Amino acid sequence: MPTIPRVWLVAGGGWIGRAVQVAAQLATVRILTDGLGTVGYGAFAVLSSLAGWFALSDFSIAVTLQNYISERRAAELETDDLVFTAATLSLGAALLFAVVLLLAGPWLSNLLLDEFAVLSRSERTLAFYAIAFPSIGTALGGMAYKIWFAQHRGYLSNLLPAAGTVLGTVAVWLFMRSSPQQPLASTLFLYYAASALIPVLALTGIVLAAARHRFATDLLRPLLRRAARFWIFGVLAAAVLQVDYIIMAQVLQAADIVVYNVASKIFQLVFFVYNALLFALWPVCSEAIARGEWARVFALLRRNLVIGIAFTVLCGVGVGVLNGTIVSIVAPTLAEPLPMLVVILLTIYVAVRVWSDTFGMVLQSMNDLTPLLIALPIQAVLSAALQTLGASVAGLPGMIAGLTACFVLTVAWYLPWRCIRYARERTTIETERHAPFDLHPDV
């Protein structure tokens, strides 16, 4: 299949998968706000926000593998030895991370849920474990999704997580119908277990198919060296994107957490639609950059930025118009529509994310993490500081404004500048390298 149709096939699978996934998540909001109440669902939302941190438990070996597979595909080389070695490393990383969380669980759970006095210390710890261990499994099995993305079969990487989310939602719905006495830990485990089991089984099948290769010790150093840079980037990105619920748990009320959770899930669907296209373009950009086809890369960027930002604004208007209807369906316990200022601010935030994440994808696709490692520490500090300040001064709208500002002040201008500069440098080098042959074709 030609490259562009394959990209749209992957993106189309992503759109279907993400739409199903977010629809299931919104259904879960309705089920759990009715079953757990505002405070209980607030605790569920705070713990669920930790999934982004637990995704780091594979030490970024999966994303490193994806880029190596793309490079080998461009050179028409086999990849089974890479797959088997990387999967073995990822399993070891997951086991190590699980032991650390087992020991640190009681302390972390009480730190995060200190404001939820209705939960005992043992209930907090059990709820923490209920999301931590399935999330580690999801991170480990996620290597299968990265392999499929590198093979331009990313539609599988989008459809299977959607299936896991649907199964989790159904499990939670069936469980809540039994009127449990202490449902928080059980609902967390049931919701996230299917999302872990499916990719782990998929990765097992992939590894068994590559098992004719032994663990390649010569690949150990290059894999870990590149993975370390991706992992540091992941930690810094989590420090930017995964502190919102932690800050809210300390500063805002449970009702604000529920409002933010509902609104962000709606806009998450908008961003997921564009993000699916970015994941589909990642291996295409990796292969194009490896061949020096910069004109093609920037043509793709221009087209997709216009599509992404226009789609975001259109969806923001749609949410504003249908605000009351959406809330009455998703979370009727809120009793009133989402604040219009929250809707406007989240629309602006997603548009800024579309812009900055596009250029971040290009840098990651060519393994140039230096600009990200320069910008993200500054952005992480600004994220925590501006969100805390905004929440303290202006409540939930102030927190969203602070989160958006940390992007505008850092990566929204720095990453595009770095991409353009790198492309010009590489184009100049290639022109000079081939100039004698271009000028004297008979040589």
What would your notes on this structure say?
With 443 residues, this protein is an all-alpha fold. The chain folds into two domains: 1-215, no CATH class; 219-430, no CATH class. Helices cover 85% and strands 0% of the residues. It is built from 15 helices and no strands. It has helices at 3-48, 51-54, 61-74, 80-112, 121-150, 154-176, 184-209, 217-241, 244-251, 254-290, 294-321, 323-330, 340-365, 370-408, 411-439. Helix 3 runs parallel beside helix 10, helix 4 runs antiparallel to helix 5 (121-150) and helix 14 (370-408) packs across helix 15 (411-439). It starts with a helix and ends with a helix. Mean pLDDT is 84; it is low at 434-443. It is found in: Cell membrane. The chain crosses the membrane at residues 40-61, 82-107, 127-148, 155-176, 188-210, 230-254, 266-284, 305-331, 337-356, 368-389, 395-416. Keywords: Cell membrane, Membrane, Transmembrane, Transmembrane helix.
